[in-house]
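Attaching the record inline, Q. Sequence:
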Amino acid sequence: MTAPLRSPAPHVVIVGGGGTGAALALDLVLRGLRVTLVERGEITSGTTGRHHGLLHSGARYAVNDAESAIECIEENQLLRRVAPGSFEENDGLFVGIDDEDMAYGEKLFAACGETGIPARWLSPAEALHLEPNLNPDLKGAIQVPDATFDAMRLPLRWFATAKAHGAVIQPFCEVTGMVVRNACVMGVRGRDHRTERDFEVGADLVVNAGGPWAEKIAAMAGVDVPIRPSPGVLLALRGRLCNMVVNRMHKSGDGDIVVPQRALSIVGTSSWVVNDPDDLGVPEDHVQKMYDEGSKIIPAVRSAPFRQAWSAARPLIGGPGGADTGRELSRTFKCFDHMERDGVDGFVTISGGKATTARAMAETTADVVCRKLGIDMPCLTRQTVLLPHTAYYAA
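Structure, as predicted:
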């Protein structure tokens, strides 16, 4: 693999082919930069391709993580405009099963109002009319603008549009080191697994968008980023047990959400922390927890046919020893300019966040990149309607 031919525009290399890397590639090429994105596997094969496909309203975080809630509702509304047809705009319910849930619901409803999330109370009869498979003993529900989407097809729209504007996307190209001279990152080196050849690509700036792998990538440049990979188990059941996203009306916990995806129902998720995002596993007791807790809001979860169980690692911001389960850490994101933070120039890291906020993460990162490279161009991804996902595979 060779770097693009020299031109007046600065060249940025993005390491990581998930949703954030895809959105960033688009943002940067729309601002006139040259972009090469490298991903060690197939695009979206990391955390991006393994989540449950929830377009968050932000309500899940409104009580205890207002910053993340506001990020989610803003992106929720924006993405519906720029990626029409990508979402099943089915809304979501937070369901109260006991008095403790209902007490939390009062806090949730107030927090939704404070963070700008549309919400309305429903009686048990109204909730059961919308979702007949709910626990018949529920005490009330709150309706919010959640939605669902295909975990791969939305990022493919970013990739497709970025490619159409000149971005070079290189899957199966694993970065194994950084080109560093005089405390400045000047490119990447690695292995192209398609040809089994080594490569080196020069760059004016390198962006680390490796998600839960960001800490490992940063170490190649001699810097540290405080990433706590936090895996969660998800359970896919055959049958569409609900048409809306159904959440338990309490502080985020294990097995308290059921997301409809085509003819499946995804029950999620557990949470713990690991040191290595390549070594997650699928603990059997976590799978059982999905059945036990999910059936409290939709009893049919208990008997629905099993399809698959898997785990995916969230790239949460937090230093070692700062969390036991990962739920203590915010779902917001952070961009690190390593010149300001570590004295290493030409290198930026973006991590944290969620699939819902990938575009916003990209905008923040592109702002930092452009400032460092002396580029004065506004973000255009807020109003650029994306190409269809099928355009990625077009010649």
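The two ends are 19 Å apart (CA to CA). Confidence is low (pLDDT under 50) at residues 326-330.

More tomorrow.
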